[in-house]
Design goal:
9-stranded mixed beta sheet, alpha/beta, Ribosomal Protein S5, domain 2, 3 domains, single chain, 25% strand, Rossmann fold, 4-stranded mixed beta sheet
Length: 452
């Protein structure tokens, strides 16, 4: 008779321990270690089964390759991120912060599919059908082929699937659905694993595409076990500041397409709208050149987007001047202030510094270093940089300007937008770039530089 040995395992990463602990020793997650009894002895052996002729292992060269057929959703920006559309039998997980617009986007996807003659089942486990109907009427997403159901029980959802036989299933959200076959509360690791596994199995068996909405934790990661991201075929992240109308969709995992695409949307009173050319959203509409501004070309996925960096410098009355940033990395701004003070002899020790981006976009890549530095130098001298000048490049601690990644694509986008001058690594040193951007600036000569 086989004896059973009690073991404890982490539901997030699979780490094992012989006694219960509150925190996983591998992934450092709290409350994920559960008891697991493993049989020992003869009962643990697995009897090998000879494969059938149809399932015999074959040389890879004898297997025909089949391209995944994408079905467009009717939303070009969403199709761009998915690699051309939704694949039958695939499972797509869309995550994002509360209120960012996940439900609005998927309701638009559902209405587009219904207007194409497909039967769509939209399961709302968080809102009532009347609430979803109200939002659909406001966004113009009403259709006879779009069916709504407010259910939180997995067995009832499967019954709806059997009765309706939909061509597209949307579940909002996977963390609020529970199964009677699994212990724990809705949203717990065991429940999420059971619900997601069942829906994925139904999707594969019926060739039914499934869209799942996923909650996120405080740090922005998807709530629930990490196994959820491994089970699904596509993981999309919906980003955006609720204070601004701009939204981004990024692909973190895609078995049927690229993972470096970005879709741009704008939240309006009528719902969510595509932004096929978002270049104008990140540039100010001031026709006159203003000191403290400089434009860079950032790379978002495969897109090159112009981003305007704005800087403001004012005398400080505090012994510790303020450094306030928005949309850029505070550590890089602090580093650039030190490089400007040491290499270009610009003093910021007695001044408050404010740096921000236009349009609410966040730029953390090193390719925006030169634009930030030039905006700070322009604000320091109170002299504007030409509105037809763009800057891109990484600034080192030695004051050297290094080439930014995908420089050719950035320069091509700058020329398309009408920028006549692009300051990049050809300037060599940061001081030379400042002198070119501010030809009338009072840059001290080498002989006038004070000694440290």
């Amino acid at each position: 008779m086989a004896r059973s040995v009690t073991n404890y395992q982490c539901t997030e990463c699979g780490w094992n321990t012989i006694k219960w602990v509150g925190r996983c020793g591998e992934c450092q997650a709290w409350g994920t270690v559960i008891e697991k009894a493993e049989p020992q002895g003869l009962s643990k052996r697995v009897t090998p089964i000879r494969p059938t002729p149809q399932r015999t292992a074959r040389p890879i060269t004898d297997i025909e390759s089949a391209e995944a057929a994408h079905r467009p959703t009717g939303i070009a920006e969403f199709d761009r991120v998915l690699g051309g559309g939704i694949v039958d039998g695939s499972t797509i997980l869309l995550s994002g912060e509360p209120g960012v617009g996940k439900s609005t986007l998927l309701l638009e996807v559902a209405s587009k599919a219904a207007r194409q003659g497909l039967r769509v089942l939209y399961v709302s486990a968080e809102e009532s059908v009347s609430q979803v109907r109200l939002r659909a009427g406001r966004t113009g997403a009403l259709s006879d082929q779009l069916h709504l159901a407010a259910e939180t029980d997995l067995a009832t959802i499967l019954g709806h699937i059997d009765d309706l036989e939909p061509n597209l299933l949307i579940v909002d959200s996977v963390q609020t659905v529970s199964s009677s076959l699994s212990d724990g509360f809705a949203g717990g690791p065991s429940q999420v694993r059971e619900v997601a596994g069942t829906l994925i199995r139904v999707a594969k068996d019926r060739e039914l595409p499934v869209l799942l909405v996923g909650h996120v934790t405080k740090d922005g990661s998807i709530a629930g076990p990490r196994l959820l991201e491994h089970l699904v075929d596509v993981v999309c992240q919906f980003e955006g500041d609720r204070q601004t109308a701009l939204r981004f969709i990024r692909t973190l995992k895609n078995r049927f397409g690229p993972t470096d695409e970005v879709g741009c949307f704008e939240m309006t009173g009528e719902g969510i709208a595509e932004v096929p050319d978002p270049s104008a959203l990140f540039l100010s509409r001031n026709s006159q050149s203003v000191s403290g501004t400089c434009v860079t070309i950032a790379i978002e996925g495969r897109r090159a987007l112009p981003v305007e960096i704005q800087a403001l410098i004012v005398p400080s009355s505090s012994p510790q001047p303020r450094r306030v940033v928005s949309g850029v990395d505070s550590a890089r701004v602090a580093m650039l202030l030190a490089v400007l003070e040491r290499r270009a002899r610009l003093g910021f020790g007695d001044k408050d510094v404010y740096v921000s981006t236009v349009g609410g976009i966040r730029v953390v890549e090193p390719g925006a270093d030169l634009a930030i530095a030039l905006a700070l130098a322009s604000a320091h001298h109170d002299r504007p940089i030409s509105s037809r000048t763009a800057a891109l490049g990484e600034v080192s601690l030695a004051g050297e300007i290094r080439a930014a990644s995908n420089a050719n694509r950035r320069i091509a986008e700058a020329k398309r937008l009408g920028f006549s001058t692009v300051l990049d690594s050809e300037c060599g040193q940061l001081k030379a770039a400042v002198q070119r951007a501010l030809p009338n600036g009072s840059m001290p000569s080498v002989d006038d530089q004070p000694a440290f």
